[in-house]
């Protein structure tokens, strides 16, 4: 924060000292609200009883604003989450007989940042939102009520045509667990995760798509279990693009590969691969998608534990491997996700729209030991009501195959209904 205060002081002094160069001050308000109902029905080690069905009604509000003058901008945003009905395990409220709905009550400073921005260069200092590429490695976890933000300095350079260099140094991640994180003996649900993290992306646009090389160096101070840490170094590349085939027909494609190994404080000597491939075909209002994702596993042994898998602790994990959230932590035997989906878009529904209905099927298996974990069915309908309001209903059904293969591997059904407002 000392650096933030110095930068703010320098900006204010420069404006006062050179009135001829002073810029108009512009204020942009920030107001975002979400009301959500979430139901979770999950099999447990005991016979299913009434209190094993979680019913959560939560309200989230973000409010603040941005003051800008010339190339400088100061943004301050608070975030609060209220549990209107708390018949659920928030992860930190001690209600462990219920399934988890990871939306604890919370009041916090979500973003406090100063930014210098010109056409070729953006520098952001402070607590900020960071979403890189498709958020598979670094994201803000926007699906949860409490957002994940980072205490960091980020530099984005676009001074060369079609090239972007994006480098971040983060000393902490402010997690979705909020101000009560770490309560009830949970070592892996902290309010913040301190460390020395570097997120580096270099991307280049071509007429066929965007090629990106990336390096993510994660050095976490907090352990996730015993002496284990999610500290890792990940190097990889991705290519994503789209190609029109005919009028109202478009082919989209994605390919990515990365290699991860231990780093810094991690006592485990391991190496694991990441692979992703996806094809999409849009025909008029329909879109078909088919894909494969691998988060590999190494059979390294440490003490009584065998197997360490590719992890992405700062990702927006809900976007990947099914909406039932069974694979937020990659099982020690790794995961292979074969999936396919269909979506249909109605541009207008009266004065509202668009309306988008989608269905996705996942088949989950291990990287090692040939385990078929289970299958999952996802369905969702979204509707844009007007320029401020949108609505969503969503369903996930995870069907375990065979015996439980990892912590939390149980038949799980989830249902959501929510309304979003943005100013």
From TrEMBL:
Gene3D superfamilies reported in the protein's UniProt record: Porin (2.40.160.10)
InterPro entries: Alginate_export_dom, Porin_dom_sf
Keyword Cell membrane: no
Keywords recorded for this protein, A-Z: Signal
Domain of life: Bacteria
Leader peptide range in chain numbering: 1-22
Pfam families assigned: Alginate_exp
Domain named Alginate export: residues: 70-158
Name this protein carries in UniProt: Alginate export family protein
């Amino acid at each position: 924060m000392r650096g933030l205060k110095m930068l703010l002081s320098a900006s204010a002094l420069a404006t006062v000292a050179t009135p001829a160069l002073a810029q108009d001050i512009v204020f942009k308000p920030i107001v975002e609200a979400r009301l959500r109902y979430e139901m979770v029905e999950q099999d447990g080690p005991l016979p299913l009883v009434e209190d094993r069905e979680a019913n959560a009604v939560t309200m989230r509000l973000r409010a603040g604003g941005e003051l800008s003058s010339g190339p400088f901008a100061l943004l301050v945003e608070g975030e609060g989450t209220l549990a209107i009905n708390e018949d659920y395990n928030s992860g930190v409220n001690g209600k462990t007989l219920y399934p988890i709905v990871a939306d604890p009550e919370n009041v916090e400073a979500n973003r406090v940042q100063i930014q210098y921005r010109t056409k070729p260069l953006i520098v952001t200092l402070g607590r900020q939102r960071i979403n890189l590429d498709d958020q598979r490695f670094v994201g803000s976890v926007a699906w949860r009520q409490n957002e994940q933000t980072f205490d960091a300095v980020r530099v984005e350079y676009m001074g060369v045509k079609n090239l972007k260099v994006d480098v971040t140094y983060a000393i902490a991640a402010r997690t979705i667990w909020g101000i009560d994180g770490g309560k009830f003996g949970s070592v892996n649900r902290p309010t913040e995760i301190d460390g020395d993290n570097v997120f580096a992306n270099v991307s280049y646009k071509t007429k066929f798509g965007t090629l990106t090389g990336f390096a993510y160096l994660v050095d976490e101070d907090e352990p996730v279990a015993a002496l284990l840490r999610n500290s890792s170094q990940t190097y990889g590349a991705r290519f994503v693009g789209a190609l029109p085939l005919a009028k109202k027909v478009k082919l989209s494609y994605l390919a990515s590969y990365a290699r991860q190994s231990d780093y810094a404080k991690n006592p485990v000597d391991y190496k694991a691969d990441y692979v992703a491939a996806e094809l999409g075909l849009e025909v008029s209002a329909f879109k078909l998608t088919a894909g494969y994702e691998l988060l590999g596993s190494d059979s390294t042994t440490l003490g009584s534990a065998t197997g360490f898998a590719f992890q992405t602790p700062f990702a927006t994990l809900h976007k990947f491997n099914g909406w039932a959230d069974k694979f937020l932590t990659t099982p020690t035997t790794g995961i292979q996700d074969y999936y396919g989906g269909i979506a249909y878009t109605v541009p207008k529904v009266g004065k509202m729209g668009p309306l988008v209905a989608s269905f996705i099927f996942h088949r989950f298996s291990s990287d090692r030991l040939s385990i078929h974990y289970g299958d999952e069915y996802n369905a969702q309908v979204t509707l844009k009501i007007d320029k401020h309001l949108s609505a969503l209903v969503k369903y996930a059904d995870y069907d375990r195959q065979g015996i439980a293969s990892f912590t939390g591997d149980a038949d799980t059904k989830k249902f959501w209904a929510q309304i979003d407002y943005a100013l």
